[in-house]
Design brief:
The chain contains eleven helices and seven strands. By secondary structure, it is of the alpha/beta class. The chain starts with a strand and ends in an 18-residue tail after the last strand. The chain has two domains: 198 residues, HAD superfamily/HAD-like (Rossmann fold, 3-Layer(aba) Sandwich), CATH 3.40.50.1000; 78 residues. α1 runs antiparallel to α5.
């Protein structure tokens, strides 16, 4: 099959986001309960409110705005607050380092695809700086031609001077806030921006509802990363407790699942390297 580009989701397609984030957030929460002498349930409620305000669950620095933190340190500047809460941020980073790893076959496959002239384009709804930082930590950011995110600034951090590595100017492009999964215009715009015919692209994602359905509606071949759905449900439930999703979001998700019930992917993969034969490349792991 002739393909010129792979447009790939990141979270739970290249790495297990649910597992790493749940562990990292839990570690941060544990430290915060100690530092602030506040019950866990109180902090969970406070985080949920802040996450909903920002429309993102991935805002560890939201801890700086916790009402409990402001009550404990009423006169602290943001920099001072960050210092007081530093053990919690370090706990988050330590657990992220432990659990943020590429799925088997991802690194070698991305390199093989790139070496054979296949353009690698990342697509995520994470904040730009978070997505870039993760791909950098994982050692694969250099393989991507472009990374598409939704809204936000490339540098969305309360202390920009602490960012060690800035993304190249031409790496990250942001899509309009209206272009979120499963809106097919997301992928059609990416194809237009990259000058890639939709029928020469392959999209890869773990969600039947948001990834597979979106690609099918855009007329783009899609591989369902089924392995990305295999994580501990208890970890997902812990994330849901602090999610930025509103009750309307939950209802909308239920409708999407119902409407996508009969959506069928073009390919089902249980490892990322199972994509290689689609491009006529040898799957080393199969031998």
């Amino acid at each position: 099959m002739s393909r010129q580009a792979v447009i790939t989701d990141l979270d739970n397609t290249l790495y297990d986001w649910v597992t790493f984030f749940a562990h990292a957030f839990d570690a941060m929460l544990t430290e915060l309960t100690r530092i602030l002498s506040v019950e866990r349930r109180v902090l969970i409620a406070e985080f949920k409110e802040i996450h909903q305000r920002y429309g993102s669950t991935e805002t560890p620095w939201a801890a700086l705005e916790l009402p409990s933190a402001r009550m404990m340190f009423p006169n602290a500047t943001p920099a001072e607050m960050a210092q007081y809460l530093d053990p919690a941020f370090k706990a988050f980073s330590a657990e992220r380092k432990r659990h943020l790893v590429l799925y088997d076959g991802v690194a070698s496959s991305l390199e093989e695809l790139a070496n054979n002239g296949i353009a690698l384009i990342g697509h995520t709804e994470a904040l730009p700086i978070n997505a870039f930082y993760r791909l950098t930590l994982l050692g694969v950011v250099h393989l991507f031609k472009r990374l598409y995110t939704v809204g936000g600034r490339t540098i969305d951090h309360p202390f920009p001077d602490r960012i060690r590595t800035l993304p190249p100017e031409d790496l990250i492009r942001t899509l309009p806030p209206s272009e979120r999964k499963p809106n097919p215009e997301v992928l059609l715009d990416i194809c237009r921006f990259e000058g890639q015919p939709p029928d020469q692209c392959l999209y890869v994602g773990d969600s039947l509802t948001r990834d597979v359905a979106m690609a099918k509606r855009a007329g783009i071949k899609v591989a369902w990363a089924q392995y990305g759905t295999r994580y501990d449900p208890a970890l997902w439930n812990s994330i849901v407790q602090v999610t930025h999703w509103t009750s309307d979001d939950v209802a909308r998700e239920a409708k999407l699942k119902e409407s996508s019930r009969n959506v069928k992917p073009d390919f089902i993969i249980n490892r990322f390297d199972e994509l290689l034969p689609v491009f006529g490349l040898s799957n080393v792991a199969a031998h």
